[in-house]
Amino acid sequence: MTNDPIALAAALASFDAVWSPRIVTRVNDYDVRVAKVEGDHVWHAHDDTDEFFLVLDGELRISLREPAGERTVVLPRGSVFTVPRGTEHRPSAPAGAAILLFEPTGTLSVGDRHEEVPDHVDATTGHALTG
Prior knowledge:
Elements: H1 8-13, E1 22-27, E2 30-40, E3 44-45, E4 51-58, E5 60-66, E6 69-75, E7 80-83, E8 88-104, E9 113-114, E10 127-128
Parallel strand pairs: 1-10
Antiparallel strand pairs: 1-2, 2-8, 3-9, 4-7, 4-8, 5-6, 5-8
């Protein structure tokens, strides 16, 4: 980690991979991650932690499987949403988006429970930001 300011636009410009988050900094025991996303992620759940999303650019959709049924929240640029722990969800961005996430360090991007992970989704605890 650095003690210098981090420009999120520069951080996002430093990589091309989608669904492959980069760790830009840490806050206490949490990673602050940025990711480029396009298409569908995978249905998954984080059993022990909430997941915070901030849409930096584009539009993100998050489908949720809740006790009352399935629903999708639509997050335009500048919107935030927290998926409660244990809730099955699937982020998607049909036209592409850039997002920022807060997650406990070591949290796997496909959660604790998930469907088969497709090739375009990186099952990772986050990559170091380079460049």
